[in-house]
Amino acid sequence: MNDSAIDYDRYDHVRPIRWNGETLELLDQRVLPFTVVHEICRSSDEVAEAIRALTVRGAPAIGIAAAWGVVLAGRGLETADAAEASRLLEPAIQRLNAARPTAVNLAWALARMGDALAALDPGDDWRAALENEALAIETEDLAANRAMGRAGAALIAPGSGVLTHCNTGSLATAGFGTALGVIRAGVADGRIARVFATETRPWNQGARLTVWELAQDGIDATLIADAAASHLMKTGQVQWVVVGADRICANGDTANKIGTYQLAIAARHHGLKFMVVAPSSTVDMGTASGELIEIEERDPAELLSFRGKRVVADGVSAWNPVFDVTPHALIDAVVTEKGVVERPDAARMRALFGA
Ligand SMILES: CSC[C@@H](O)[C@@H](O)C(=O)COP(=O)(O)O
């Protein structure tokens, strides 16, 4: 498939992050799909809070938002010297980095912003350099998604059904999406005939965001309860599970939204294929394997309440890890903009991404 087969403008209806030259506008994902409002961030700490609170979410999107957060942090500084700016920006960068632990894209984007500053000569315009770098991070992510969409869809046999988890679409990226980009590309060229999306409890990224995005594209998608996934697989309606990632380790172990691991186990049990789609900014060759990944745990209230109203008896406690790790042995393909790693392991990952 070439680019001309896909009308990308059709997927441009959702932009989670918009830099307007002075402030950062974030589409508030906490209140979608029925309320479409933007939160205006004027400082890096406001961006850090928006990432923590899930106003903006999805691994690539939080990296992009954080990069613009560094630009905002630079606005408050007086110095003309790049080295001094680099030193003064460090606390703000650390606060952005601490907003969420699991997605490596956050640390990756912040490191890129720091490297861009470090590469400057003393007289260079460091504010312009930061802005250019944030824009480059955003632009490259969109290009990566389009490339992954084509590469991932090419693996899927015509007439297939797919199941996806969480939200990996335009909302989670600079646009088009990772796993959802593969689904968009696969539907566009007739390979994907049926799309199923999990609810993705407890935050409902699938129910509130993914099927909303697809509905606006005119792509039919069927929502299922998370607990219906194995049964769906057994009925023969899906041939692939296609998901995104928050961190892919050097051996291919992959952290993604809680529930991904059990989908991979169920897919293997039913003889289905399991695809992980993520830009190379999600690949962390510095982390050897999945047990070294910090798994974010969020407020148990997400489980104990529904729409702000407690639905579980008082006194009951809950445990709310929001990511899990799928071992590489359960993954059939890791699709990135740099290429596809089939049956990923340490040697195959190293062959594409280096040491
Ligand atoms: C392209 S987004 C990939 C992942 O970030 C996505 O699958 C996911 O797990 C998002 O989790 P979230 O907690 O909504 O930020």
From TrEMBL:
Name the enzyme group at the top EC level: isomerase
GO MF: S-methyl-5-thioribose-1-phosphate isomerase activity
The record, for NCBIfam families, names: eIF-2B_rel (TIGR00524), PRK05720.1 (NF004326), salvage_mtnA (TIGR00512)
- Enumerate the residues binding substrate: 57-59, 100, 205, 256-257
Classification of source organism? Bacteria, Pseudomonadati, Pseudomonadota, Gammaproteobacteria, Lysobacterales
Which BP terms does GO give this entry? L-methionine salvage from methylthioadenosine
The name this protein goes by in its record: Methylthioribose-1-phosphate isomerase
Q: Which reaction does it catalyse?
A: 5-(methylsulfanyl)-alpha-D-ribose 1-phosphate = 5-(methylsulfanyl)-D-ribulose 1-phosphate; 5-deoxy-alpha-D-ribose 1-phosphate = 5-deoxy-D-ribulose 1-phosphate
Q: What does this protein do?
A: Catalyzes the interconversion of methylthioribose-1-phosphate (MTR-1-P) into methylthioribulose-1-phosphate (MTRu-1-P). Also catalyzes the interconversion of 5-deoxyribose 1-phosphate and 5-deoxyribulose 1-phosphate. Part of a bifunctional DHAP-shunt salvage pathway for SAM by-products.
Q: Which SUPFAM superfamilies match?
A: NagB/RpiA/CoA transferase-like
Q: Where is the active site?
A: 246 (proton donor)
| Known EC number | 5.3.1.23
Keyword annotations of the record: Amino-acid biosynthesis, Isomerase, Methionine biosynthesis
Q: Which Pfam families match?
A: IF-2B
Q: Which gene encodes it?
A: mtnA
Q: Which organism is it from?
A: Thermomonas fusca
Q: In which pathway does it act?
A: Amino-acid biosynthesis; L-methionine biosynthesis via salvage pathway; L-methionine from S-methyl-5-thio-alpha-D-ribose 1-phosphate: step 1/6
* Residue numbers marked as site, Transition state stabilizer: 166
Q: Which family does it belong to?
A: Belongs to the EIF-2B alpha/beta/delta subunits family. MtnA subfamily.
